[in-house]
Write a structure and sequence with these properties.
about 130 residues
Length: about 130
């Protein structure tokens, strides 16, 4: 299962289309707010999260606070790959995100097909062979 956390309906639509282009059968669960995703994760009984795509700039609870709270729950759901996303050009955002041990990578928005293919393959979410 892939969790996509982004407060932009347009970005959620775009991410879903890109993921479906790569893996038409992917199980995708979307959230607008980080606390909704945390509640979902905490109450998840069946299903394994393989990948979390997390926008850094979210209202109420930002991506960094999500990661701090998620770290206490991490053992509940294995260790999915976590990629933070941002449209920010601030190099401090990238540095802060990639410095966290729980973050596997940083993706610039808008997402690019080739970058997302590599992420899905790394997370074991793509039925395709390794990307070039």
């Amino acid at each position: 299962m892939i969790l996509v956390i982004d407060d932009s309906p347009e970005d959620l639509f775009f991410h879903r289309r890109l993921i479906r282009k790569i893996d038409p059968g992917a199980a995708i669960t979307e959230f607008t707010y980080a606390e909704q995703a945390l509640d979902f994760i905490e109450n998840l009984r069946n299903g394994l999260i393989t990948l979390i795509l997390l926008d850094i700039n979210l209202p109420r609870i930002d991506g960094f606070e999500f990661l701090r709270r998620y770290d206490t729950m991490r053992q509940l759901n294995g260790a999915p790959k976590i990629y933070v996303m941002s449209g920010s050009i601030d190099p401090n955002d990238r540095a802060a995100a990639t410095a966290l041990a729980s973050v596997d990578g940083y993706l610039s928005k808008p997402l690019r097909l080739a970058a997302l293919q590599k992420v899905l393959w790394t997370a074991g979410q793509s039925g395709q062979t390794a990307p070039l």
